[in-house]
Design brief:
The complex is a heterodimer of chains A (about 120) and B (about 775). Chain A has about 120 residues and is an alpha/beta fold. Chain A has five helices and five strands. Chain B has five domains: about 160 residues, Four Helix Bundle (Hemerythrin (Met), subunit A) (Up-down Bundle), CATH 1.20.120.160; about 160 residues, no CATH class; about 55 residues; about 180 residues, Histidine kinase-like ATPase, C-terminal domain (Heat Shock Protein 90); about 170 residues, Roll (SH3 type barrels). In chain B, helix 1 packs antiparallel against helix 4 and helix 2 runs antiparallel to helix 3. The chains are: A alpha/beta (about 120), B alpha+beta (about 775).
Chain lengths: ~120, ~775
């Protein structure tokens, strides 16, 4: 089933790769390059899933997750954080903030799509 | 359903990655400059960290192993820095710059598909390791809580168990899973039904649901968890796959996975950490949500510290969640949005933009052709066609400006490299320098930007090497120890003006003049103005350093700079005040695609003179015209004599009139403020013309910069004023005296391509 997914990453390369993978599987993809722009992209918009990087300028991924969870509209929206293998601390902080799960960078397309299916109804 | 998979599905994004690297490195270099100068804040350090972090992530995705390994360590160093666990001092700044260089090189290596020597970058790495080992206790928070041993231990267990299970290869594995979600699971937007769905995909499943905890409706909290499930799963998959189903929820539920044997005997029982509770220290890294959520380590340091203690005995200081405290408060609201125009931009292949620029160029030509037809057709000036043509011309002009602006980029990318050069060179020559940059957001065509880096670098080096004095000399001259180089850019009259100003010793005119005479650049008896002497440093083969330094000597000095700038249709000049300093000024066109020109007629040909060069047009009375011994003319304007060049004669029409009083003289300013008069027959009007390269379509012709196509479809040549000012005028009489000894002697013959031929090649 096609989902509407917001992908947030300050790296254009990552955004491109996530977007390419998701679109290839038939999903609709919105993109934002930091937390602030993610929130503005979500003004008047709902999505089925949010995938966010953590290290970003202006508003990082953790803050973004916190803000989204505080918003009744996104309380039940699955949020995946993109982390690297060594960032277990960040993974935990992401979870504490309310993230649903995580994707380890670098990812293979199959894995990303599998995780998307896993958390999306 | 899946995108087409090749060996590397992401190979197509490599280009993006390298482009991004370039941008990140540019910003990073600038930020490092700020760190060095001491004018940085926490966000500067975060930005540097993020740059390296992003490069690492990308490098990882494309398996650039060397880059990953290096950025991994570099990142640690930067983490210490942003956590303020390192003092910013010179050795550290050196290490940062050195690491930056290595990283830049590694990116280049990867881009070119090369593999650097094993030794490469080891010195930088060693310097980094020096900092990392010197401060073990302050390992980055992320790393400190990684508690690798625990993770590995857990993995080991999993491997062992998997091996166990898979010894029954081909067979069916049998698990009993007791699953009781907690309220936290819903808070993380994990849905038990999705877990069940995923389990069902693994194999045959029998589900028993326990609703005992479900309260009566009135007491039911919609977001609390009340159900428990017991699944009997028969699957071809192994224990790993079962674990993976619960990957995201393992902290938020009570989970018991029992592996059953062939006869339903219990092989192993695994209880989730959540269920096991506090007595299971092995899983300390599943820290209680609430503790972490608070973001304050001290509020509940116990689990974290225990974990770290396992990893790094004794020296733990402040692990975990610290980054949260130092992350600057996120700006919100409209101001924050306005500060980030980036998200609204797209990346476009330069080729496509160039094609667009070309098409618009053709459109301009077609439009002016049409406009000319309409003008010639004796059509009513207020007719719909005439009005429509006017509007069309306006729209096309606007379209053209907009298309040109796509190619415009701020000079920042070039300016950003300069602090580095100043830093390196000033160290080498033992001078203290402060670099001030201004107008970095000034935009100019991409081509100009690309060609600007070399000349600018050279000029900055020159200012450092020759312009500025040593600290001792400065003190002796009553100046501050530290010299200043100011690099600025601004738009002025449709061009970009870049200035490099130093407060050094200025140009030593005596020395320049004697050297110039010695080298035969000027005649022995030449009398030159101060300004002319200063500008001699741009003459070919000129070097003013007492000894050739490895920085800006070697005779390929400022003349190369001038040539480069001229090739861009620009000009360079210097003004200097002895003892006070020198100012180099570069003037460049904003774009290399169009030009505002004055169309003039000489003999039967038409030429374009760039408007920017034109000072004024005069019709000199014969009393103001003097004839030189070689037959060429000068005119007197406000008491000054100005050499007149007959454009028609210059380009081959030997029968053309040589008397300026019979025509018009367009006074033009060339390089270094030199003024000459161009003798033409008529002015045909001012017009924006689309530049067509002569070299590409025909070949270079001295005195001609390029060509254009006029409204009537004819090819018209654009004069190269700087070249004309330097060229020797064809002699009319045998020369006995040169009027202008400052002009470097040139002997090349000019050759005029026929207009017919050009039409064929440029059409």
């Amino acid at each position: 089933m096609s989902k509407k997914i917001l992908a947030v990453d300050d790296s254009k390369t990552m955004r491109d790769m996530v977007s390419f993978t998701l679109k290839g599987a038939g999903h609709d993809v919105l993109l934002a390059d930091d937390g602030v722009n993610a929130l503005s992209a979500l003004t008047g918009e709902t999505v089925d899933l949010i995938i966010t990087d953590i290290n970003m300028p202006n508003m990082n991924g953790i803050e973004l997750v916190e803000k989204l969870r505080a918003d009744p509209r996104f309380r039940a929206t699955p949020i995946l954080i993109l982390t690297t293998e060594s960032d277990d601390g960040l993974k935990q902080r992401g979870r504490a903030a309310g993230a649903t799960g995580w994707i380890v960078k670098p990812f293979v397309p199959e894995k990303l799509l599998k995780v998307v299916d896993k958390v999306c109804a | 359903m899946l995108p087409a998979m090749t060996d590397d599905p992401f190979a197509q994004f490599k280009l993006t990655f390298f482009e991004e690297c370039t941008e990140l490195l540019t910003d990073m270099e600038q930020n490092l400059g700020l760190v060095e100068s001491g004018s940085f804040d926490n966000e500067t350090l975060h930005a540097i960290f993020r740059a390296v972090h992003s490069i690492k992530a990308g490098a990882d995705a494309f398996s650039f192993k060397r880059m990953v390994a290096f950025t991994h360590r570099f990142e640690f160093l930067l983490d210490l820095l942003r956590e303020e666990k390192l003092a910013v001092d010179e050795p550290l700044v050196d290490t940062l710059f050195k690491s930056f260089d290595v990283l830049s090189d590694l990116v280049s290596f990867a881009q070119n598909g090369e593999e650097p020597d094993a030794e490469y970058g080891q010195d930088a790495l060693a310097a980094i390791e020096g900092y990392l080992s010197g401060d073990v206790g302050s390992q980055p928070a992320a790393e400190a809580t990684t508690d690798k041993p625990v993770v590995e231990e857990k993995t080991d267990q999993a491997v062992v168990e998997t091996a166990d299970v898979q010894s029954k290869e081909e067979g069916i594995n049998h698990f009993r899973i007791e699953f009781t979600p907690k309220e936290a699971m819903y808070r993380h937007a994990n849905e038990p039904l999705l877990i069940i769905r995923e389990l069902m995909e693994l194999g045959e499943i029998t589900t028993t649901i326990d609703t005992e905890r479900l309260p009566e409706l009135a007491k039911l909290e919609p977001e609390d968890a009340y159900f428990s499930w017991v699944f009997e799963l028969k699957t071809r998959y192994g224990r790993d796959d079962v674990d993976e189903v619960f990957e995201f929820v393992i902290d938020d539920c009570d989970l018991t996975i029992v592996t059953l044997g062939d006869d339903n005997e219990v092989v192993s029982v695994d209880v989730s950490p959540g269920h096991a509770g506090d007595d299971d220290d092995d899983f300390g890294f599943f820290v209680d949500d609430e503790a972490l959520k608070s973001g304050v380590v001290d509020a509940n340091p116990k689990p974290v510290e225990e974990v770290v203690a396992e990893t790094k005995p004794a020296e733990v200081k402040a692990p975990a969640a610290a980054p949260a405290a130092t992350t600057p408060a996120a700006p919100t609201g409209p101001t924050a949005k306005a500060a980030m125009p980036k998200s609204a931009s797209i990346r476009v292949d330069v080729d496509r933009v160039d094609r667009l620029v070309n098409m618009v160029g053709e459109l301009v030509i077609t439009q002016s052709m049409l406009a000319q037809e309409v003008n010639n057709s004796a059509m009513d000036q207020s007719s719909n066609v005439t009005n429509g043509m006017e509007e069309l011309s306006m729209h096309i002009r606007e379209l053209q400006e907009n298309v040109m602006s796509i190619r415009m980029q701020p000079v920042k990318s070039v300016f950003a490299r300069m602090p580095r050069i100043v830093r390196d060179v000033s160290k080498k020559v033992g001078k203290k320098v402060k670099l001030i940059t201004e107008g970095e957001t000034t935009e100019v065509d991409k081509t100009v930007i690309e060609e600007l880096a070399d000349p600018l670098t050279h000029m900055i080096r020159n200012s450092l090497d020759h312009g500025l004095e040593t600290p001792e000399e400065r003190l002796a001259a009553g100046k501050g120890e530290e010299g200043t180089i100011r690099l600025s850019a601004e738009h002025r009259g449709g061009r970009i003006v870049i200035e490099i100003t130093d407060d050094g010793r200025g140009i030593n005119r005596e020395k320049v003049l004697s050297l110039a005479k010695e080298k035969g650049v000027v005649a022995e008896d030449a009398s030159l103005s101060d300004e002319e002497i200063d500008n001699l440093i741009f003459a070919p083969g000129f070097s003013t350093a007492d000894e050739v330094t490895d920085l800006s000597g070697r005779g390929v000095g400022m003349d190369v700079v001038r040539r480069n700038i001229q090739a861009l249709g620009g000009r360079v000049s210097v003004t200097s005040t002895p003892g006070v300093g020198a100012r180099f000024q570069l003037t460049l066109p904003l774009t290399l695609a169009v030009l505002d020109g004055m169309i003039v007629g000489a003999s039967d040909e038409k030429y374009v003179i760039p408007i920017n060069n034109i000072i004024e047009t005069v019709r000199p009375p014969s009393s103001d015209v003097e004839t030189l011994i070689d037959g060429n003319k000068v005119i007197r304007i406000r008491g000054e004599y100005i050499r007149v060049v007959s454009v028609a004669r210059m380009f081959g029409d030997v029968n053309a009139s040589n008397d300026p009083s019979k025509g018009l003289v367009v006074l033009v300013e060339a390089d270094g403020g030199k003024v000459i008069g161009l003798h033409v027959d008529m002015l045909a009007g001012q017009q924006q013309v689309v530049i067509k390269s002569l070299e590409t379509n025909y070949r270079a012709v001295k005195g001609i910069a390029s060509a254009t196509i006029l409204g009537d479809g004819s090819v018209c040549l654009i004069l190269d004023i700087d070249a004309l000012a330097r060229m020797e005028v064809p002699k009319i009489k045998k020369p006995e005296l040169m009027a202008d000894s400052f002009v470097p002697k040139q002997t090349e013959q000019t050759e005029m391509p026929s207009a017919e031929h050009l039409e064929a090649v440029t059409a």
